[in-house]
Fold:
Amino acid sequence: MVPNSQFVPKLFSMLATEDDAKILLALPGIAEDLAQRFEMETEQMEQKLHGFFLKGLTFKSKKLEGTKHRFCRDIAQLHDASILWADAPQAFLDLWQQFMEEEWPAYTKLVEGFLPRPLTRIIPVERSISPRSQVLAFENVKEVVEASRRLAICKCTCRLTAHKCDRPIETCLQIDKAADYALERGTGREVSKEEALTILTACEEAGLVHVTMNRSQNMHYICNCCGCCCMALPLMVAHGRKMCDPSRFLAVIEEPACTGCGVCLDMCTFNALAFTDNDDIPVVNEDVCMGCGLCEVVCPTDAITLTETREEAFIPAM
Structure:
């Protein structure tokens, strides 16, 4: 998954034996076929596959021929799935954090060159958007929640291992199929739409950025990310990695209302606000602002709004 990694093989050895690895390399497949191939009883293979599923090594999908099991798609998916493994020892979690500190930054630079667009995008805080702007259903957390079939809340895998801040941990909202997955594995708890919205509001007040899949339909999650533990945001700020697309909006400061208190500067994860030598109010760096709207949440005079600056087509259909 990660060329020449010193940590990924160690992580893998804590999840699977050499015999397990042979089965994993034979995926995708259904239990009956795999049992025949490896000369095992079907029930024994099913137990083996279920163990992989609980550890976050595999995913399941219902097919006409039976339940098909597939191996993790990439290292980021393995990270998020395996860290929530109920029996994960502390040494396993610590090893993941070593990987994130020492190898992940260079790996993201490599991956960045292969992706035409980032896989995730920012969802803005709804109340911060200018009344003159059009907010589409897929960029409105309330409408995403209201349209969902099922919801679950999980712990943030980044803050669970990094421990760099005291922000809330139970903040990763899983939607529909992702919620089914979390509940089947026991890695999350089911929540109502009302509780989900309450959690999202609390995340905004804690300075967490809403992040989801970079498409306009079938979103599986809304993460709530900080600027210190997250696998993406700190690298975007420190190294300019294109790991997350902005929202379609840009922060605008209304000069008559702004008192120049500077509270918004402390809230901004992306360092997009700053005072200049000739201004008494902050200036927005349009090249850096991600349009999350958190600056508006803390503005005591309601001097900040988000204005629509990108077309609807900016967000990919799929």
Notes: The radius of gyration is 21 Å. The domain at 249-310 is CATH 3.30.70.20 (Alpha-Beta Plaits). The first helix runs from residue 8 to 15. The chain has 14 helices and 13 strands.
